[in-house]
Amino acid sequence: MYEKTYPSKRFRITLEFLKKHIGTHERIFDLGVPNPFSKIMEEQGYLVQNTTGEDIDNDTSALKNNEYDVFTAFEIFEHLLNPYTVLQNVKADKVLISIPLRLWFSPAYRSKTDMWDRHYHEFEDWQLDWLLEKTGFKIVDRIQFTHPVKKIGIRPLLRWITPRYYLVYAERIK
Q1: Is the CB of residue 77 less than 8 Å from the CB of residue 121?
Q2: CATH number given to 2-172
Q3: What is the top-level taxon of the source organism (predicted)?
Q4: Domain segments of the chain: what residues?
Q5: Residue 53, burial from CB neighbour count under 10 angstroms (0-12, 13-18, 19+)
Q6: Rounded to an integer, what distance in angstroms lies between the CA atom of residue 81 and that of residue 108?
Q7: How confident is the model over 8-61, as pLDDT tens digits?
């Protein structure tokens, strides 16, 4: 059903996971500038506010100064130097976070033309779990999924069977 509407498997799975845990009446603060997935959330009736491009490693004021019920970060934490500080400053009691998993057969992504499009962290699932635990969150649900590419070769074949993304829903421990 979503395959024709959404450009990727990742968007389809993320939207299904979001709908499973978050109601459209809840205000979402989405880390990162407006993007194709934040637009999909809005089309589905979610109230979404994004950051404005500030360097969130150095300036967490947007996390403190906005009103929101849910914090989302979809494929953003790998670009941050300090996601721990970000999570410490989240006001919401609910978080949805997805990360690309570290792949043993591929080096960390680093764009040669865009200094912001780099992965400082490529997590293993336990690392994100620990980060959430240390910042006061308990994981309620999680999934991993593959991201096949339409190419020929050993790495593309491995992408059909090796999970690439990790998606977590967690709530603050009170």
Answers
A1: yes
A2: 3.40.50.150
A3: Bacteria
A4: 2-172
A5: exposed
A6: 14
A7: 888 999 999 999 999 999 999 999 999 999 999 999 999 999 999 898 889 999
